[in-house]
Amino acid sequence: MSNSSRARALAKELRAARNEVGLSMRLVGNQLGWSEAKVSRVENAKQGITESDVSAILAVLRVTGSDRDRLLKMAREIGQPAWWELGRDLPEQLTALIDAEQRAVRITNVALNMIPGLLQTRAYTREVMERGGMPADELDDHISIRQVRQGVLTRKDPASLTAFIDETALLRPVGNGRVMAEQLRHVVSVSAADNVEIRVLPLKHGAHAGLSGTFVVYEFVRSRPIVYMEGRSSGAFIDDHDDVALFSDALERLRAQASGQAASREILSEYQERYESEA
């Protein structure tokens, strides 16, 4: 969703909230110290609005609880970058993926062959993209976009990330020892954040519920969850309730099969030390 679309959606929500309590634009304006014309411009997305403005409006309209939190989140998102609007010729699928990441409150990634993109360092991403055939003149832009996407984990209202990482991804030397040591050091560091959970799927346990393929589940405040399955040249979003339920069942099984968070950090640290000795 573009920033202009976000602004229109918020304006529509504020207008609906005012109508629900039966207040006129003039009365709302009087309580805010605004003119009726300014209230009209805000409700029609003709004027910019800050999070503090939205907070003041919601106080006048007596909007509280989860609805207040949701509308304030919408206000914050208006100022967040929609990278596909900045003159970059990105594939439609990538723009949809970025939008899902920006809107999600919880992201669960099952990774088999590599470290998930939201956890990758620049050097690791460069190795993956170069070996995957990314044209040299597009490489730096795509690396930067992937790095910027990681901002969903550190913004003011961060998404929660759970990453199930198969031990195979730790064994595979992407780049040299220095690249891998830096990458695993970064994953260990990020795993200390309250909104990030890293779970390793050890090889010694054999088969697990994620072996049928890598996938990502996105959960939202009001929309139903969706699943993204990535292929070599394309991917697919799945939103049918019954189909998504199959992936949710797989995640429950993975929680029972994966190492706990503390044990997973130990595994990651052991591999980090191994690669550091090779660097």
Distance between the termini: 43 Å
Using the alpha-carbon principal axes, give the shape.
elongated
Oligomer: single chain
Q: State Rg.
A: 22 Å
Write up what this structure looks like.
The chain has 279 residues and is an alpha/beta fold. It is 54% helix and 12% strand. It has 12 helices and 6 strands. The chain has helices at 3-21, 25-32, 36-43, 51-61, 65-78, 92-103, 122-131, 136-149, 167-171, 177-190, 241-257, 261-278, and strands at 106-111, 160-166, 196-201, 215-219, 226-230, 235-238. Strands 3-2-1-4-5-6 form a 6-stranded mixed β-sheet, with helices on both faces. A hairpin with a 4-residue loop joins strand 5 (226-230) and strand 6. Helix 1 runs parallel beside helix 4 (51-61), helix 1 packs antiparallel against helix 5 and helix 7 (122-131) crosses helix 8. Residues 83-87 have low confidence and may be disordered.
Distinctive features:
279 residues, six-stranded mixed sheet, single chain
Strand-helix topology:
Elements: H1 3-21, H2 25-32, H3 36-43, H4 51-61, H5 65-78, H6 92-103, E1 106-111, H7 122-131, H8 136-149, E2 160-166, H9 167-171, H10 177-190, E3 196-201, E4 215-219, E5 226-230, E6 235-238, H11 241-257, H12 261-278
Parallel strand pairs: 1-2, 2-3
Antiparallel strand pairs: 1-4, 4-5, 5-6
In short:
Helix content is 54%, strand content 12%. With 279 residues, it is α/β, with parallel strands linked by helices. Helix 1 (3-21) runs antiparallel to helix 5 (65-78).
